[in-house]
Amino acid sequence: MAGLKVRCISTKPYLEELPDGSLIQGQFSGEMISLTLNKVYDVLEEDDGYYRVVDNTDEDYLYPKTMFEVVNS
Question: Do residues 35 and 69 lie in contact, with contact meaning Cβ atoms separated by under 8 Å?
Fold first, then answer.
């Protein structure tokens, strides 16, 4: 993942798709204050629909890819 950068495009809660195709509310409620809208983050790892980034808490966490857009380097 060296060099991949993503911009946060949403801090809103997200929906997760279950194997049967139904949608449920994701684990987050409200806005995520650990991410800043429009801030560019370095991706440490990609994992099945998620990016691992170091967020505003200076810790690395997995976030859904749908919350980001890839930034051209």
Answer: no
